[in-house]
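A.,

Following up on our hallway conversation. Structure tokens first:
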């Protein structure tokens, strides 16, 4: 017969896999305790301890009288978020430069026709949001463009690092839109360089605008 800690670990893994796979997306309510007992084939105490473990990890959140909800799909994102919650915008830009410059280089070298199409679509969506003057959409579409570039780099470690910093990067993008006058076409040169496969220009474009935010350009 399995030891209790083993049962809890197995239950935690089963719950975590449903969260990280997107079966239970962020913001959704997970099944109630009786349903989890049936789903996992373990006792109520094991379910409670497994759920509590994921609450402590930051993946789940209990809401009094409402149920338990998915708060995050990544324990790494939660951990990193706690560490950088009080980071200065300058600190975030410096990290962005470290990641995004290399992402631009790799994206220019590895982009496919499908990638190029996705980048052009993301560029156009960003420009449309800027023209509409919708700050929330400007932030969302700008972040989506950068995520598309990082995915185009086709380095899973780089993608994972970037995705787990999205909250901080999104806040930094918002800060930059509010405090800076860069226009709707600010990233056109970067997208053109990646689509053309010009890695040197892609690096220069990325380093240029991020260094400007740091007052180094």
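Then the amino acids I'd put at each of the 217 positions:
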């Amino acid at each position: 017969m399995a030891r209790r800690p083993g049962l809890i670990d197995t239950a935690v893994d089963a719950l975590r896999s449903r969260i990280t796979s997107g079966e239970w997306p962020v913001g959704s309510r997970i099944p109630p305790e009786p349903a989890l007992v049936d789903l996992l084939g373990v006792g109520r105490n094991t379910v409670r301890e497994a759920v509590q473990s994921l609450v402590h990890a930051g993946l789940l959140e209990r809401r009094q009288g409402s149920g338990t909800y998915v708060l995050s799909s990544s324990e790494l994102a939660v951990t990193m978020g706690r560490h950088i919650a009080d980071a200065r915008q300058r600190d975030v830009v410096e990290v962005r430069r470290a990641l995004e410059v290399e992402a631009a280089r790799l994206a220019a070298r590895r982009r496919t026709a499908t990638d190029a199409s996705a980048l052009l679509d993301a560029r156009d969506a960003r420009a449309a949001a800027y023209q509409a003057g919708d700050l929330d959409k400007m932030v969302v579409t700008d972040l989506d463009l950068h995520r598309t570039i990082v995915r185009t780099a086709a380095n899973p470690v780089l993608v994972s690092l970037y995705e787990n910093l999205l909250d901080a990067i999104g806040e930094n993008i918002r800060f930059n839109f509010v405090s800076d006058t860069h226009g709707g076409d600010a990233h056109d040169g970067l997208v053109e360089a990646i689509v053309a496969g010009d890695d040197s220009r892609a690096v220069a474009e990325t380093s240029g605008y991020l260094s400007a935010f740091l007052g180094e350009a």
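The longest helix spans residues 89-110. Curious whether your intuition agrees with the design.

B.
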